[in-house]
Each structure stands twice: as structure tokens, then as C-alpha cells.
Amino acid sequence: MAMVMAESIVGLVVILMLVLIILFILLACRPWRFFFSSPQHRQIKVGDLERPLISDDIGSVQSQVNDLPTNQLLEVLHPQAEENISSPRTQGLACKQKLPSTDEHSNQGANLVLDVISDPSEDVPVGHTIKRTLVAKCPVEERKHVKRERTNNQLPFIAENDSPQEPGLTGIEAQRSSLSLEVISGPSCGLRCSLLSTNTAKLPVTLGRVSPSDLLVKDSEVSGKHALINWNTNKLKWELVDMGSLNGTLLNSQAVQHPDSGSRHKSEPFELASGDIITLGTTSKVSVEISPLVECQIPFGVGIASDSMALRRGGRKLPMEDVCYYQWPLPGVEQFGLFGICDGHGGAEASKAASKILPEMVANILSVSEKRQKVLSLCDASDVLRDAFCQTEASMNHQYEGCTATVLLVWAHGPEDFFAQCANVGDSACFVSIGGKQIKMTEDHRITNKSERIRLNETGEPLRDGETRLCGMNLARMLGDKFLKEQDLRFTSEPYISQVVHIEKASKAFALLASDGLWDVISIKKAMQLVFQMRDNYSADGDNFAEKVANFILDEARSLRTKDNTSIIFVDFATTSTSRTDSCKSCS
């Protein structure tokens, strides 16, 4: 009897388990969804699909949308439409970009255009561009960069009969333009690229995630070949073209795309202007600076290169706080030119301010005839450089930001002879090579440096043994940092002034200025060897030889894994170049 009851219980348990398994399968598969259609979706008729989505008559578009009942209109919109975000996977419907309304008091529904799209779900392989919904918003920080408003809030489509030209430029001057691009947000923030419209060998400028893009943006939402910028010789304008990117391109928050938005083809060209913001994907923003070119004969070659670098291989780029610049000639002072590097700490604002103010102060002082003649007669600009640093420090009001400053003042004494003198605060260094002999033009103002420790000890508050920082700073001389200078009088902006060096063109002399990111991994001797190596491998007669040298040294610092912003200026006194810029060039 007991055995029969046990068998009955086991059988009952088995039956219950089977019932539970069947219920679980039914709940997981939900077969009833094939027999009942959801009443929440509005049915779309075949005629609706054949009807054009955008009519030539704007009024008809508004009437078509206004005819929809409010509840039906809300049903076809994604719940996130209030946030201007539409999901391409929601019921096969997407809310496209709003058309500009002809009446500011018109109904909000009149601005909605519905599109039927097909976007099957698929897995994204590793290394491919990650697709993101393109949001046409204009954040506050982006508006700050836009310097020119576009009429009617529309992109300037280039028509065939257009013939734009920069005001005040005629003839050959209008055919030359300088384009500068800087990534201002995203993983590659700080990356810069500059190009001249006359350098046709390097056109067009390509923007993308993979080599050989000219602006290599390491962002997973940027396509391998995302966009390009070219110079239109007929219209004399720079133009932006989207290459059919996955996540799209925005120009001042307006979409740049092929007329058939569902296809991945090249867009039409759109005109660029100085101050524009290009958004690649959703996170990487690129600022555009365009300036006319004025041809200027420079009696020596100049090359500039910089990189913000990263703390580890493949890691995120460091914030760029270096600014390097040069002006030849200085405004109103034909015989003089200035080369400089400012390395910021606590932010980039102090270095940007110093790089603008310092050349102005030098030019203002030299514009006084008596002071200029004194420099030329005595072959010494010590007073000019010292006064310029003093006035720059007085003009800066940066309490918690500061920067190093290294400047090389060069003046001509005939077509073949030059004089050069350097001044610096901080640890950005400069040296000059004349006839193969190296001359250091700067002094290291790190607290660990022997000469700087001697100066600090002479102030009456000597450093303790082993003390390598002052109020957390490893430098005792800088521009800015007013708060630190108020707390500790041992901080100063008094520059070191070098001796004047005489340079003849026949001596094959050159000068190299660089921020501490270079000198942390490369010695002066090694830097000289790199320059001589380039001279052996390449002809020094080329117009861009100095630029090649600067980039070659920068590549060497990058390969040696420097972990700080690195900026380089290379001046080749043995060559002559024609500058097609506005006599002033900066890189940050």
C-alpha cells in the first residue's frame, strides 16, 4: 500500500513539473503575439508610403500634419521625442529634424516630418564605428565658439552661380587662405591641423578615425573616413563634405548629409567660415579658423610642431596647455621677429594670454625709435626683453593659473647676418647651434636646479635639504600665479636673459625651442644629432624642410613615451622661406 502511494506522489510531482515547464515556455515565447495585433500602433496605408514625405509646398506639409488628430500624432512619436531624441528602432518610425517654421506662432505639430525607415538590428563588430542617434542641439559652450551667425538658421549650400569672395581681397590675394582645425571636445581634444589653400598636394583635408586621415580623431563614434574639407578654386572658399559617415556630421548644429538621408553617400559641399564648429558623431567637435594669406619673405626657415601627448599608449590625450607662436616681422618693426613657447599649468588660459601679450609688449617697446636704435647700435636687447616680461606680468590677472615663457628675439643686420637673444622663465628651453657648436640660451628654473636653489637661498628663506617643491610647485619663476606670489615672495617673474649671439647664414646655424615635454626624454646633444640626421637625409633647400625637422623631433619624443605636452619651434638660419600666412603663426 505504501509503495502505491509513493508511486502516486512521484507521478503527481512529475506532472506538476511538466505543467510548470510548459507554462514557462509559453511565457517566454508568447505565441499569442502572432494572433493579436497591438492597438497602439497607427496603421500606415500603402498610399501613404508612395506619397512624398516633403512637398514642394510648405503649406501642404503643414496641413497634412495638422490634419492628424493629436492622439494619433503622439502615438507615432517615440516617448523621448520631447527631448529631441528619436530611436530608429521604434516601430520603424523616426522623427526627422524639424523644418523651420514660417510662422513663429504656428502649431508645434506643423514642424514634424515623419519618415518610414528600415533599420534591422545587428551586432557591431569590435573596431567598427559605434552608431549613435544624431542630436541636432547647440550647447552653450559650442555657441561661444561660433563667431558668425548664419541667416535663416540654414547651412550655406554652395550654388553654381555663387561667387563669394573675402571682403577687401582681390586678385591673387583672394586665392590664398589658411585653414586651422582644432579638436575642442572628445577623446582627441587638443589635436590640431593646419593647411594652406596653395598647398594642393595635401588637399583635401580628411577627417576620420583611421590612417591616413589628416585629422586623426580617435573616437569610436567617428567613421574611418568621416568627412573631408577642400578648397574650391572657383568659389575661393573652404567646403565641408560628409563622406557618408555612420553617425553623421553637424556644422553649427545643422546636419550635413546627402539629400537622401537614408543612404550613406557623400553630401553636397557646404561652405565653411571662421568660427564654425564641426561635430563628428556626437562628442568630437572641431573648431574652424580661416584667415587670408599675405605673402611674406622670411629670411630663414621656420617649422612648428606640437602634440598634447598621453600618459600611456593608446590612452586619452592630455589637456593641451602649451602655446607656441612666432611673428616675423613684428608689427611696425620690420627688422625684428619673435619666437616663443608658453607652457601652462593649472589650465591653458595663462599661456594663451602670455602668448598674445608678450609679442605686443616687445613690439610696442621696439616701436619707440630711441629704444630700437639702442638695440641696433649696442647689439643688445636685454632691457627690451626685461621690460616686456615685466609689463606682461603686470597685464596678467591670473590668480591660480600660470605658465612658463621662453622667447627668442631675432633681428636682421643685413641680408646675411642676424643677431639673436633669448629670455625665459620656467623650464622651456632654447639652444642655438652655430657651426656645429651648441649654445644654450635659457636657464632651467626648476627648484632642483643648482643655480635656482642658490637664488632662492639668497632671498633669506633657504630651502631645506631634499626640498624639491615650493607650495607644491616645482618651478620658482613663471608668469601669472598671482596667488602663489602673494603667499611666498620667493616666486618671481624676473626672466633670465641670455647673451647675444651673432649668426651668419654661411654658418648653417639653427635654433630649437621646446617645452619640457621634449627635454624630459631628449637631451640637447641628442636633439642636435636628430637635426644633423635630417640634413643628411633631406635637402635643406626645400621650403618645408624646417617643418619636417620639427615633426621628426616631435615623433622621436612621442616614440620615447614623453608624458607631457610637447611643443617645438625649429628655426633654420641657413635657408630662406616664403611665408604664406599673416606674418603671425601660433600652435596650441
E-strand count: 28
Q: How would a crystallographer describe the biggest sheet?
A: 8 strands, antiparallel
> CATH homologous superfamily name of the domain at 301-572?
PPM-type phosphatase domain
Rounded radius of gyration (Å): 32 Å
> What gap, in angstroms, lies between the N and C termini?
94 Å
Q: In what range is the share of β-strand residues?
A: 15-25%
Secondary structure category: alpha+beta
| Share of helical residues | 10-25%
Query: Which spans have pLDDT < 50 for at least 5 consecutive residues?
Result: 37-126, 134-174, 580-584
**What is the correct CATH architecture of the domain at 301-572?**
4-Layer Sandwich
Which CATH class of the domain at 301-572 applies here? Alpha Beta
Shape: elongated
Mean pLDDT rating: 77
What is the fold-level CATH name, i.e. the topology of the domain at 301-572?
Answer: Phosphatase 2c, domain 1
Organism: Nelumbo nucifera (Sacred lotus)
Cofactor: Mg(2+); Mn(2+)
Pfam families: FHA, PP2C
GO molecular function: metal ion binding; protein serine/threonine phosphatase activity
Blueprint of the fold:
Blueprint (H helix, E strand, L loop, with lengths): L1 H28 L16 H5 L7 H9 L3 H7 L16 E3 L18 E3 L23 H4 L33 E9 L6 E5 L8 E4 L6 E2 L10 E6 L4 E6 L6 E3 L2 E3 L13 E2 L5 E4 L3 E9 L3 E3 L2 E7 L14 E6 L8 E10 L3 H18 L2 H10 L3 H14 L6 E11 L4 E9 L3 E6 L2 E4 L9 H8 L21 E2 L1 H6 L8 E2 L3 E4 L5 E5 L1 H4 L4 H14 L7 H15 L6 E7 L4 E3 L4 E4 L1
Parallel strand pairs: 5-6
Antiparallel strand pairs: 1-2, 3-4, 3-13, 5-7, 7-8, 8-11, 9-10, 9-12, 12-13, 14-27, 15-26, 16-17, 16-28, 17-18, 18-19, 18-22, 19-23, 19-24, 20-21, 20-25, 25-26
Helix pairs in contact: 6-8, 12-13
